[in-house]
Amino acid sequence: MDLALLAVIGIVALALVFDFTNGFHDAANSVGTVVATRALPVKWAPAFSAFFNFAALFIVGTAVANTVSKTVDKSHSSVGVIFAALFAAIAWNYITWFVGMPSSSSHAIIGGLVGAGIAAGGMEAIAWDSVKKTALFIVISPLVAFVVAFLIMYLVWAIQKLFKMHDDHPVFKGAQLVSAAALSFGHGANDAQKTMGVIGALLLGAGYIEMNGKNLAIPLWVEIAAYTAIAIGTLWGGWKIIETMGLKITTLHANSGAAANVGASVSIFGATYGWLFGFHAPISTTHAAASSVVGAGVASGKGANWKVVGEMVIAWVVTMPATALIAAVVNDVQVKACTLVAPAETVRPPAVIVAPPAVTVRPARTVTAPASVIAMLLALSALLRIRKDVAPGTIFAEAAPNVRLPAVSATLPEATVNPPAVMFMPPCTTLIA
After folding, report:
1. Scanning 3, 31, 147, 249, which has its CA 20 to 30 A from the CA of 72?
2. Of 215, 173, 222, 139, whose CA–CA distance to 33 is shortest?
3. CA 149 → CA 102, 278, 348, distances in Å?
4. Rg (CA), the chain
5. Could you report the per-residue pLDDT of 223-232, keeping only the tens digit for each?
6. Are residues 134 and 284 in contact, defined by beta-carbon separation less than 8 angstroms?
7. How many CB atoms lie within 10 A of CB 371?
8. What pTM was computed for the model?
């Protein structure tokens, strides 16, 4: 197994870690409301949400995954770029989870891809049309969720007055469970696809998969792995964010909880299936859920904790720039580390020894005859040309200059020459380019 394949496997595993953090970070989207209103026991709420997270696998396609996969141009979707983006997104998820602040995992990964892509290939490395969709829905999805939840709350009030039902009537608790299931389904459908898109971009850049027309052919194993990771993360649960979402934004009852879930579900499904302006956009389910809770709280007369809401808005605005910066720094650190660290066993791929084939050298077959043969031929030639007026002792002196010696052929053994092997050290680009 070569180093490049091992690197791809490692980054796929890291992407699934991000998916896991997405699950526990965003578990509050649906679990927070049912826990706050006690529509479902605390111990069952995460499992309830995780089940519907995974159920989306069997129904939803990969349109959102394709949008995410096109964030960075194929030529720059290297192992190093994807690693930097995932590192930034995971770090941001843990930071915001630690302080109990709902933020967007979706915008974290998109910001990471943009930052790492720009650091690796400049502005032209980014598909800005795809990024614009995400940026547009930073505004659209919370607004839609707030308005829908606000209007649904007034509809719920009308039903309450008509049938004289209290705020925590069992009908509303049942409606909250149904709407929470829909919200969990939408969460899995939209958020799992972001991880699928990241893995798809990695596999495309590494040459393991190809485009199917204008769309990326996401392998089935990638879909199953992504939905499994997000479901496990949801099952684990991020209770700090659940507390913020369910208890700190506003006071929820079963009626307002149901209205909040409906508002968030409409926004999420609208983006996932293209109902909102025809875009299959990777939206923030956290933004949608929190905005719908605010809308339901305001409409119900309970108001909202505007200090907490303000802190969330700041986190939303800062997420993409912060993760873009983190990813860019990580990418640059990789490049510098590879430049400074020369040993092949650390960052460079193993050297390839190129040994040229042996060359057989055949020497010239005509060689100079031995001295004894020359002397014999000289004597024979001289005797044939003796003149009577030539004194003895001068035969060889006269004859020798005129002798034309025939070439003597000899077969010499062939010599096999092995040229020295050349060590080729590939450039330090496999892990960082």
Report:
1. 3
2. 173
3. 19, 22, 55
4. 39
5. 999 999 999 9
6. no
7. 8
8. 0.73
